[in-house]
Amino acid sequence: MRLLLLLALSTSLFGANLEIVRPVISDSDGGAALPGSFEYRPGETLFFSCRVAGYQKTSDEKIHLAYSVQAFDPKGVPLVELFQNEVTEEVTPQDKEWMPKIRTEIPMPPLIAAGTYKIVIKAQDLVAKAQAELSVPFAVRGNDVSPSDSLAVQSFHFYRAEDDTQPAEKAAYHSGDAVWAKFDITGFRYGPHNKISISYSMSILDASGKTLWTQPQPNTEESESFYPKVYLPAALSITVQSNTRPGPYTLAVEVKDAIGNQTTEAKATFNVE
After folding, report:
1. Closest CA to 84 of 72, 64, 68
2. 152-272 adopts what CATH topology?
3. CA dihedral in degrees (15, 16, 17, 21; nearest 10)?
């Protein structure tokens, strides 16, 4: 009997049952949990909450918990900065079913790839000197970008308008039309604080390969971010002039990565009718 009493006392003191329970991921503050099959989009905010069970109390009926929440990409790279906090509450016998609630918002970066991400929650019972951890997966429906070891242009397509999400079925334009080209830049290098320094410009070539026009000033993107940008979306446009001869033309894109000292080029053909 004495041995059983000692074992029970040991379990109570060291908080062997500390547990993170009832995880909820929602797309609105206080919203219902979305199913595990739900796909979130880059740039959205996740509203996360959970409860902590199995905590121990001090002799004066108080609890003291410390916890952290952080999201990670499929490779284990932190998606956002670590969120940390503590809970100190008085819990009376009448509140024996009460469980502390952890809640936070997770703003997802806008330029992340598709895949299965996870939220890692760690809790520490500072009274019982016990710890618990839980990993909650969630799916992201991001851009389908292939990793590249060097600077590259992907998904180079022509569009009818700047806001179009689907490429033109036929890259054929008339006088006065705007020729829109969109593409993704990958394989660039990072500086301190995940800094990137990218520039890109276009030239128009005729059917013989002769350069007819070159963009005088390149477009530039120089920025820093907590999470490294997986890719950089880019768009360029030019208007078909009234004196342009019908026929095939080539839009050539030159991309430069100042940090990685890399340059690449991509070409695509459109027609003027």
Report:
1. 68
2. Immunoglobulin-like (2.60.40)
3. 90
Where in the chain do CATH 2.60.40.3880 domains reside?
Answer: 10-140, 152-272
Fold annotation for 10-140 = Immunoglobulin-like (2.60.40)
Residue ranges with strand state E in the chain: 19-26, 39-40, 45-53, 62-72, 83-90, 101-107, 115-125, 130-140, 152-159, 172-173, 178-186, 196-205, 211-214, 219-223, 232-239, 247-257, 262-272
Angle at 259 between CA 257 and CA 260, to 5 degrees: 70
Could you report the per-residue pLDDT of 234-250, keeping only the tens digit for each? 999 999 999 999 999 99
199-233 confidence digits (pLDDT tens): 999 999 999 999 999 999 999 999 999 999 999 99
Burial of 122 (0-12, 13-18, 19+ CB in 10 A): middle
